[in-house]
Write a structure and sequence with these properties.
The complex is a heterodimer of chains A (289) and B (259). Helix content of chain A is 73%, strand content 3%. Chain A is built from 11 helices and 2 strands. A two-stranded antiparallel ribbon of chain A has the order 1-2. In chain A, a hairpin with a 2-residue loop joins strand 1 and strand 2. In chain A, helix 3 packs antiparallel against helix 8 and helix 9 packs parallel to helix 11. Chain A is globular. Chain A starts with a helix and ends in a 12-residue tail after the last helix. In chain B, strands 6-7-8-3-9-10 form a 6-stranded mixed sheet, sandwiched between helices. A 4-stranded antiparallel sheet of chain B has the order 2-1-4-5. In chain B, helix 4 packs parallel to helix 7 and helix 7 packs parallel to helix 8. Chain B is globular and about 50 Å long. Classes of the chains: A mainly alpha (289), B alpha/beta (259). At the A-B interface, helix 6 and helix 7 of A face helix 3, strand 6 and helix 4 of B.
């Protein structure tokens, strides 16, 4: 079979997974104007929550999903209320140190709570593989890609077709003007944090079906998340979607056709190339003003 | 400086403001506010009566924009009183003040660049809970044909004048009793300036009161019933629009001598 086709299909599937876990990072960056370095750690905690719900409480993965997502939403709200609200409008350095501190807090409390072991689950419905365009793809990854598409669809619908979604966009584009229109900008920031961590949780739940969790699992994802968001561009949920897919494709094609050792080098070369040609990202929009 | 410590002062200044204002819609008494430790307003007292166009002029840094921001709750007053229709606005946030019947058009661009003209209008009615918003928007687009032609386009594609028109149109969706306009004609051409003041006149005919701040003092004064001259955070002169326009000292200092 055509090696390129295999690489493209597998890259697309993993790209959708990258897009899903990156989505929330882009959302907070766009709406709240804060860079959340701890984003991958929330995904890691969602993976642990899923692990204990499935392996400990013997819940089905699909029963655990709404619980973990709801917990993620609450964790996002709490993070905004307890921590982020205090640094809004502060210097960029303060914000960077705050979310970096959050990264270490979440990571090392996971070490303390769960130890360094790798843990995974098997979800029987996701065993085996499915054919996509004639290319075999693991069912677990295909399910995660499907979950990504559904999550993107829901969030896109929320942002484009509801009054609250428009208010979120207004807050992203000009918070002072939004406030002058009577939009409770603080609530929009809380909502953005809730949605952001909820989407990371969806990613964590499905990732656990084919990727084991340990407290450092975020390392493999944080850079890819940043690359997806920056490459795709801000201003809509389509940016991280496109960014994640492009990164998945570059990684897979370069990894399969050139050498797996250099796949990340190709990913970041692609990122630099895009930023060189389009500094705002592929779908970049003018952000303020 | 503790805000509560001034509660007594505030009651006094509120009474003073009311006494000065008669049946004022908006009464500002001995208002102090600023950024950080820097006081910009140093005891401003003024009023706006129902259906009146009042302008505030003064040099750069006199505190004109700060005054509007403080009235609308973007900045917290450190001392003094702001009452709207007898209700104190001090300590309230912009969304609450909006619901009281005041709208604010900030200086510079306040349209939402990546949303369509339609969405900009719908969001202007964000605080409205009734079902007539859609009809009202259609009626508004009839009144502003330039916007109807561009209703599906993003606001960022509009010219500066069209954005101002959109901002003015948004005000009408809320049917407020008082409009705060911060430099409504800054950067606009002559024809656009005329159009904006035509709309300000229309606000007045609908019974809306307008408090506007202008660098472009001469035009503003011609369209205002009353005016205040602000200097270093205090009211230096007050009077009728024409009266201020003819005042020799104001002319010398702010209107560039003769004409």
């Amino acid at each position: 079979m055509n090696l390129l086709l295999i690489a493209v299909v597998q890259g697309l599937v993993m790209g959708l997974v990258y897009a899903l876990v990156s989505l929330g990072l882009g959302l907070i960056w766009g709406v709240v104007d804060v860079v959340n370095f701890a984003h991958a750690e929330y995904m890691m905690w969602a993976m642990y929550a899923t692990y204990f719900a499935v392996a400990g409480l013997h819940l089905d993965l699909l029963a655990a999903l709404p619980i973990v997502v709801a917990l993620g939403f609450l964790a996002g709200l709490c993070t905004y209320i307890v921590l982020i609200r205090r640094i809004m409008g502060g210097p960029a350095v303060t914000q960077i140190f705050t979310t970096f501190g959050l990264l270490f807090f979440l990571r090392y409390s996971a070490f303390a709570a769960f130890g360094p072991d790798f843990r995974g689950i098997t979800w029987p419905p996701a065993s085996g593989s499915v054919l996509i365009l004639g290319v075999p793809v693991s069912t677990a990854q295909a399910d995660a890609a499907l979950a990504a598409l559904i999550t993107f669809g829901l969030l896109h619908a929320l942002l484009q077709w509801t009054k609250t979604g428009k208010a979120l966009q207004a807050t992203a584009q000009n918070p002072a003007a939004a406030l002058a229109l009577g939009i409770e900008v603080e609530w929009m920031y809380m909502l953005a944090w809730g949605l952001s961590i909820a989407t990371a949780a969806v990613g964590g739940v499905f990732l656990l079906t084919f990727y084991q969790v340990s407290p450092t699992v975020g390392d493999a994802f944080l850079l890819l998340m940043f690359a997806s968001v920056v490459l795709g561009g801000f201003g809509s949920v389509l940016g991280p979607l496109l960014g994640g897919v492009v990164i998945g494709l570059v990684e897979s094609v370069a990894g399969n056709l050139v050498s797996p050792t250099f796949k990340l080098a190709f990913v970041f070369a692609a990122l630099l190339l895009v930023l060189f040609l389009r500094p705002g990202g592929l779908l970049g929009q003018e952000r303020r003003g | 400086m503790g805000v509560d410590g001034h509660a007594g002062d505030r009651a006094v200044s509120a009474r003073a403001a009311e006494a000065a204002a008669g049946r004022a819609l908006l009464a500002v008494g001995d208002l102090h506010a600023g950024y950080g430790g820097q006081e910009v307003l140093r005891g401003v007292t003024l009023c706006v009566r129902p259906g009146e166009v009042v302008c505030v002029i003064g040099p750069n840094g006199a505190g004109k924009s700060t005054l509007l921001k403080t009235i609308f709750g973007f900045l917290r007053a450190t001392q003094g009183a702001i009452t709207f229709d007898g209700v104190s606005l001090v300590g309230r946030r912009p969304p609450e003040i909006l619901r009281c019947g005041i709208t604010y058009v900030p200086q510079g661009i306040s349209t939402l660049p990546n949303l369509s003209v339609d969405d900009n209008l719908r969001l202007a009615a964000y605080v409205r809970r009734d079902r007539r918003v859609r009809d009202d928007i259609e009626r508004l687009l009839d009144a502003f044909p330039a916007l109807r032609a561009r209703r599906r386009l993003r606001a960022r594609t509009l010219s500066g004048g069209e954005r101002r028109i959109l901002e003015i149109a948004r005000v009408l969706l809320l049917d407020p009793r008082l409009v705060l306009l911060d430099e409504p004609t800054i950067g606009l051409s002559g024809a656009a300036v005329e159009f904006i003041y035509e709309k300000v006149g229309e606000f007045r005919r609908r019974g809306l009161a307008v408090l506007l701040v202008e660098q472009n003092a001469r035009t503003a004064l011609r369209h205002s019933q009353r005016a205040y001259v602000l200097e270093q955070g205090r009211v230096r002169f007050e009077g009728g629009g024409e009266e201020i326009l003819q005042h020799p000292e104001v002319r010398r200092a702010y209107l560039g001598g003769r004409a």
